[in-house]
Amino acid sequence: MYVLSLALWLKRRDAAARISWTLACAFYLAHVAAAFQFQHHWSHQAAYLETARQTADVFGVNWGGGLYFNYVFTVVWIADVWWLWRNGARPPWMTVAIHTFFGFMFFNATVVFGSGFMRWFGVASMLVLAVIAASRLRPVRARSW
User: Are the C-beta atoms of residues 110 and 119 closer than 8 Å to each other?
Assistant: First the structure.
């Protein structure tokens, strides 16, 4: 849903993108709730230790501080959905800041810490979004008859 939302915004389908963005946020919140309920038993410490274990597996550093990035991600996404429904659009600086941070989080979740299908899905998604973004940067040329 995150990738679909970005693709819709890049294609200037703002109303559909806002709905998709809202649904993506809802699915993400359900994912967080399920992870905390079934994996961490609503324990911040358990989530922190699991984050530290995964970071040690990937980078060799036993650090769970990445969990706080997820907390910030959650708050920013909820606030952004609220902002978009209230105001209709964001200032350009806010759009750049949010999507830079979200792109970093998506890449890390799918490519760096992901495996198997999710890793390939993350790579393919980033490539598709890059192609769509690049197509918006190309100048439109008038046809010569």
Answer: yes
Handedness of CA 44, 31, 125, 130 (dihedral sign): negative
Tokens standing for residue 114: 């992901």
Q: Give the mean model confidence (pLDDT) for residues 1-26.
A: 93
Task: Look at residues 102, 109, 103 and name the one whose alpha carbon lies nearest to residue 80.
Answer: 102
Euclidean distance between CA atoms 140 and 89, whole angstroms: 25
Give the per-residue pLDDT at 135: 86
The reply to whether the predicted model has a pTM over 0.85 is yes
Give the whole-angstrom CA distance, residue 73 versus residue 65. 13
Under a CB-based contact definition with an 8 Å cutoff, are residues 21 and 84 in contact? yes
Structure tokens belonging to residue 139: 């100048």
